Amino acid sequence: MSLEARDLCARAGGAFEHAALRGRVSEARILLLGHAILLRFASAPLAARLMPALSHLVMSARPAATSFEQPDLTIDVWDGFVAGAAPHAELGVAGERYHFEDDGLEVFLDAGARLTVLDRAARRGYLWVDSVTRMPPHESAAPLRRLFHGWSRWRGLQLVHAAAVGRARGGVLFVGRGGSGKSSSALACLNDPELGHASDDYCLVEPGKPPRVHCLFSTAKLRPDSVAALGALAGTRWEGSGDATQKAIYFLNEGQRSRVIPRFVLSAIVMPRVTGGPEVTLTRASAAEALRALAPSTIVELRSGGREAFANLSALVREVPVYRMDVGSDRQAIARAVRGLIDA
Amino acid sequence: MHESVSALSPESRFAAVTDGVVCDVIEGEAILIRLDTGAYYSLTGLATPVFKALQDGWSAAEIAAALCAGRAEASSVAGGVQALAAQLVDEKLLQAAPRASAAGEATLSPVEGDIAIPKLEKFSDMTDLLLLDPIHEVDKTKGWPTSA
């Protein structure tokens, strides 16, 4: 019920204020498509975990714009317990995941260990985690994803599950189900000095004719054994367990700043498929195939706003040509093929 | 009004399911997604206009008659349409509506040559992911479950 959610929202605000009393609150202001978003951390370790992926968006100077004085969204982030209690108190059964949305309020409760609240009317977002050390690694790769998704819905934008690379005159989205090769295709383009990286997993799409892709998270995930093939990542800071079977998170803005492209006009949608052959081949595909490759994972992963997301994605796939790309062992050929699509 | 799949006949009528299902038709292919399960589906060829007619309250017999335009195979075509309708009902993408009547303009034209009604194609990769780690939707009227 909304009353419970309203109460939860108030409790979250109170818990953040209480956490803020324990120590210094650090602030960071980021700029997304001209909108200022204020991030407040009552936890230095959490700020250290979540901010690197967003560092390319941080405003170093404080502009005079009124929108900056009045952020479009303020997100409060903290960890730990207040008087031994989590902000969601007794709501939810331990270990289960919940979603609630009504009356401008959206709540995610993940196994009692993470609470995300977004209050549209108050333009406030909250993220609480029980322990920074128990946070899953992917949280560093795409931090505050649910809050950015909720905010993007207010602004008529669409968060999409896709990898993205491009340059000034255009770029492509790589779409497909997990394991289809979209991330590895995008990462293969890192070795091409003419192509910038905008997304490994999630990016923002601004609808229009043509649509524009915006980089939200300047991270790339890949296994250590793949790094050797990507000389471009030398000197880039990374986080990971060191386990060769687990992907590490590379923070491209720390060491490869010039390789992060903030935005580009969308030239094409590409559906990669890893084959055993040596070459890369491109064939035209239908918009319906692109919608099948893009919509289910985006909608299911993000959970909320499925109906409008489907409409947005359905419009998106009609705007640009769609290609099926068979990816072989020649990684440089992927970048050449992408450049060809942009220049077409 | 619910009607079991086994009770469907060539005269059964249907209505669209709008709650929890999104659908669009692009270049003749209908893409449907069940928002609650993450399952997604594709209808191609003749199945797409047949699905639209079923949503508009046409019975399998009426659809077959429109497609066959008096030809003898209307009965077997109706069987194919009925099988598709049963699949759609089973997947909760279409609902039986015994009191419905055919509505909307006829979008089906007679088809020359062999008539085959393509089956519904289902993709379950996202459903499998959701089943591994489900997210419970909190009921707006019942409120949150509690651990207390």
Give an overview of the whole structure.
Chain A is an alpha+beta fold and 344 residues long. Chain A has ten helices and 19 strands. Helices cover 29% and strands 31% of the residues of chain A. Chain A is globular, with a radius of gyration of 20 Å. Chain A starts with a helix and ends with a helix. The mean pLDDT of chain A is 90. Chain B is of the alpha+beta class. Helix content of chain B is 29%, strand content 19%. In chain B, the strands form two sheets. In chain B, strands 2-3-4-6 form a four-stranded antiparallel sheet. In chain B, helix 2 (60-68) packs across helix 3. The longest helix of chain B has 17 residues, at 74-90. Classes of the chains: A alpha+beta (344), B alpha+beta (148). At the A-B interface, strand 4, helix 8 and helix 9 of A face strand 2, strand 3, helix 4 and strand 7 of B. Strand 4 (97-102) of chain A pairs parallel with strand 7 (135-137) of chain B.
Which helices and strands appear, and what pairs or packs with what?
The complex is a heterodimer of chains A (344) and B (148).
Chain A (H helix, E strand, L loop, with lengths): L1 H20 L4 E7 L2 E7 L2 H7 L15 H4 L3 E7 L17 E6 L2 E6 L3 E6 L4 E6 L8 H4 L3 H10 L3 E4 L1 E5 L2 E5 L7 H7 L7 E4 L2 E5 L5 E3 L4 E4 L1 H4 L9 E3 L8 E4 L11 E12 L6 E5 L1 H16 L3 H14 L2 E6 L3 H13 L1
Parallel strand pairs in A: 2-3, 3-7, 10-17, 17-19
Antiparallel strand pairs in A: 1-2, 4-5, 5-6, 6-7, 8-12, 9-10, 9-11, 12-13, 13-17, 14-16, 15-16, 18-19
Helix pairs in contact in A: 8-9
Chain B lengths: L13 E3 L4 E6 L2 E6 L5 E4 L3 H9 L4 H9 L5 H17 L3 E3 L24 E3 L1 H8 L2 E3 L11
Antiparallel strand pairs in B: 1-5, 2-3, 3-4, 4-6
Helix pairs in contact in B: 2-3
